[in-house]
Each structure stands twice: as structure tokens, then as C-alpha cells.
Amino acid sequence: MRHASASNETMESSSLTMTDLFKICTQCERLSKKDVGVRIPRPVGNGPSRFIPEKEILQVSKLDERIQSIFEDAFAVLGRLDNISLVMGFHPQYLESFLKTQHYLLQMDGPLSLHCRHYIGIMAAARHQCTYLVNLHVNDFLQVGGDPKWLNGLEEAPQKLQALGELNKILAHRPWLLTKEHIERLLKAEEHSWSLAELIHVVVLLTLYHSLASFTFGCGINPDIHTDGGHTFRPPSLSGYCVCDIANGNGETKGNVSELSGEVEVLMEKMKQLQECHDEEEASQEEMATRFEREKTESMLVVTSEDEECIPSRDVSRHFEDPSYGYKDFYRRGEHVPTLRVQDYSWEDHGFSLVNRLYPDFGQLLDEKFQIAYNLTYNTMATHQGVDTSMLRRAIWNYIHCMFGIRYDDYDYGEINQLLDRSFKVYIKTMVRTPEKITKRMYDSFWRQFQHSEKVHVNLLLMEAHMQAELLYALRAITRYMT
Ligand SMILES: CC(C)C[C@H](N)C(=O)O
Fold first, then answer.
1. Predicted local confidence at residue 78, as pLDDT
2. Of 94, 271, 385, 392, which is best to mutate to test ligand 1, by the most ligand atoms within 8 angstroms of its C-beta?
3. How far does Cα 254 stand from its chain's mean position?
4. Which pTM does this prediction carry?
5. C-beta 375 within 6 A of ligand 1
6. Which atom of ligand 1 is nearest to the CA of 382?
7. Is the ipTM of this complex over 0.95?
8. Is residue 422 part of a domain?
């Protein structure tokens, strides 16, 4: 992997204003005409996402003043406006909360030093081979005075950070295996020990960046203009076209519409039917438990084909140990995942207060972010208005938790099978387990009649449910250690 560093290129690109960034296409033209005496980078040209036409994303920021001001704040606070934020701009209420949390976690007073926070972010993102996030935080790490030597690999970082390798690995791939012994080893390592408050900060960072890596792949986020691979100094070579349009499929029409029609209506009809039979029949406790187990077992079955199995490249893998972990055939054989019942350990009743106690106010912020994601709705389904979508959104959230073995006793897991079809499940499973394998084809083939903003909405649900699930296991292990 080539890291973008605080090089001249970066300095030059930071002279671009935010308005320039919003008008990337017109910018190609403008910048080539403008003679300002310095070499000005041109975006490689495919917009913030490989999956979503650039003009749809830019449209949002042009029309909405609230978005403009959130973007301005983000730019002022972080000194950049990354492609993740631009794509999240479809959902301003969520974006606001997301940025607040990021700011608190990375920049405000807290148990960990600034460069350690970014280094942990790099470790977490590298676990899922997310070069995009690794590059972003390598830049930040260097900017806050991090030692460049650490970037050669985890073995060159202090022993205290190296000790997080195991936690990073288990949390990312099989968080249910985390025990209080893992926690104890980190807290009782003599001069290399972590404090409890530091450890909370660590697990929040790790879980955030694992799930954000999924979001990044799930939305096909492109490299930022100021990072490596995100810009070029060469003039556009395809005369008459903007390269953006070619690279991200702008102007491409959606598949065969008549073939798709009815997909949304069928789903809405199912929701209505489920609502009706809810009021009628109640399944027995055993039956409810069986439905959960069935769904959990199904969710463990792997979706990708043999030949896609790969070991991450050396470049990213140097930031974590044992790169083959998580890529062996655990899932192929349908690994047994134990069940965690929410009544025994939940975010609301247990995790939240533990975080708030050790990292004041942060629990609150995190809780707000979970709630916004969970409750977000515009009451739409593709072109239909005024629809209650709570049943569908809950099925998505609970399916992710089910993949992590987390069970809500009062939820009927039969609903998931009715509402989430095969291609949607393929997308979800890939995004959560092996996000680096998400392809444009997978993104395109689920929910084909829905808007891009709705697919981003789905990604937000997946990301937050994923983060909460991982966090729950980490916090449970910490609670067990403490009691
Ligand atoms: C994810 C989508 C089904 C969300 C839907 N458009 C809503 O506003 O609730």
C-alpha cells in the first residue's frame, strides 16, 4: 500500500476550498483553464462512490442548506471533507451525530493520546483491508506527530499497542470468543498495562473502525482527493467526456424496469400480511427459539465462492498480526456461534452505563447515534410515500445481531426470512463478514427499485448494528472481568 503522507501534493490539494470539492466535475474544466502558477491536483474523477452516480450525491448538498452547514462544520473541525461524509450527506440527521462522535473520539480530551487513537483506527481498518480508512488515518497519525516508524508494521509499534493485536483480531471476526482472560492480560501487563478507561476508548475505536470499514466497502467509497490514488496531476485524456461519468456509470440507465416492477409492492404486501398475522397468532417459546436458531445457522453459511478466498496483501496486513485469521473456512463449515440473550446483557441496560462511567459523556453520544440510525425513517419505500417501514428496518437490524448470535426473546425471527430476500442477505453477510469482497454487482442486485439514498440508509443500519454487536461482546468481557 502506498501511503499518502504530508507531502507537497497533500499541501497543494488542501488549498482547494470546500466549494471546489462539491463541484468536482465542473472543477475538472475550471482547473485546467485556470493558470494559478502551481500544479493543481485533479480528482481521479469518479466521485465519492463507485456505486452511486456522482450527480446524485452532489445534488443533495446543493439543495439542502442544513447539509451545507454540516459540511462546513466538518471541514472546519477535521480540516477535510472525506467521501464517507459526502455519501452520508443523504442523511443529515445521522451525519451530524456521526461527526460529533468522531470529533469526540479522535480530537477531544480522552484517555488515549491523539496519535494512538489514529494508530488504533489504522489497525482496525487494516483488519478488514480497508485501504481507504488506513490512508486517511495514516495522514492524521502523522499530522498529530505520530512516529512514522510505527507505520512499518505492528512489530515496530510499542509493546503496549502490539498487545492489542489479539483483541483486534477476535473482535473483528469472532467477538463471541472474547473472555475476561483476554481483558485481564491487557490490564495486568506490568509496565505495558492498559487502564480500564483507556481500554474502553480502545474498544470503541476498534469496533467503530471495523464497522466503518464495512460501510466504506458497502457504499463503494472512492479514495479522497487528498489521499493517494484520489488525485492526479495529468490532464484529462478522454476529450469530450468527464472521466467521472465513465468511471462511476453516470448516465447509465437502471436495468430493465419492467422486469423489476412489483418488487417493492410485493415486499410491502408481505409487511402488511405479517402485521395482520401478528395480531392473530402467537408462536410458542420453543418455536420462537427454533426460528432464531434456524436463522442464525443460515446466516453462518458462507456466500462467496472458493476462488475468491484470499489472503490480504502484505501492505495492509503489516498493521495487524495473523492475516489469515478470519479468512479460513470457519464459516464454510457453518461455525457454531453461542447465543447471547439480550435480557442477559444489552447495550441499554449494561453496556451504556459501563461506557459512560469510564469515559464520561461518551456513552450518551454513542447511544444517540445508535438511536438515530435505528429510528431513521422518511416513511418511504422507493416511490411510495407514507409507509411505516419499522418492521423492515427492525428485520435488518435484528438479522445483523442474529449473525452475531444476539437474540431478542420477543422477536419472531421468521419475519426475517419473509422480508429479506437472498440477494439482500448475500450483500449483508458479505458486508459484515468479508466487506472487502463487496462488488458493484452485489450492490446493484439487491433492492433494485430502491433509491441510492435508501441503500445508504441500509448501510447505516448495518454499520450501527454491527458496531453495537461487537461492542456488546467487548463490554461483556470487561464487565465479567470487573465482577
Ligand atoms: C431502508 C429503507 C427501507 C428506509 C425507508 N426508505 C424509510 O424511509 O424508512
1. 76
2. 392
3. 26
4. 0.84
5. no
6. 6
7. yes
8. yes
Q: Any catalytic annotation for residue 277?
A: no
Residues 219 and 293 in one domain: no
Tally of domains in the chain: 2
Residue tagged active-site, from 25, 28, 130, 402: 130
Pocket lining: 93 vs ligand 1, CB cutoff 6 Å: no
Domain end, chosen from 188, 203, 224, is at: 224
Ligand 1 nearest-atom number relative to CA 396: 1
Q: Do 473 and 355 share a structural domain?
A: yes
Instruction: Pick the residue whose CA is nearest to atom 5 on ligand 1.
Output: 380
Based on the fold, state whether residues 350 and 478 are members of the same structural domain: yes
At 215-264, the pLDDT tens digits run 999 999 998 876 655 555 555 444 333 333 333 334 344 445 455 568 89
458 within ligand 1 shell (Cβ under 6 A) = yes
In this structure, the answer to whether residues 81 and 199 fall within a common structural domain is yes
DSSP state letters, 370-410:
HHHHHH---S-BTTB-S---HHHHHHHHHHHHHHTTEE-TT
Same domain for 298 and 156: no
C-alpha–C-alpha distance, residues 272 and 185, integer Å = 51
As given in the structure block, the three cell numbers for residue 133 are 480508512
Listed residues 224, 258, 290: the one ending a domain: 224
Per-residue model confidence as pLDDT tens digits over 352-365: 999 999 998 899 99
CA separation for the pair 225, 302 (Å, rounded): 35
Identity at 193, one-letter amino acid code: S
What is the Å distance from ligand 1's center to 381 Cα? 6
Query: Residue 260 domain-assigned?
Result: no
Q: Please check whether residues 294 and 220 belong to one and the same domain.
A: no
Q: Does 454 sit in the ligand 1 pocket, CB within 6 Å?
A: yes
Q: Which domain covers residue 131, as residue numbers?
A: 56-224
Q: Can you spell out the DSSP letters for 233-268? A: SSPP-STTS-HHHHHTTTTPPPS-HHHHTTHHHHHH
Q: Is the CB of 451 under 6 A from ligand 1?
A: no
CATH number (domain holding residue 67): 1.20.1290.10
Question: 389 CB under 6 A from ligand 1?
Answer: yes
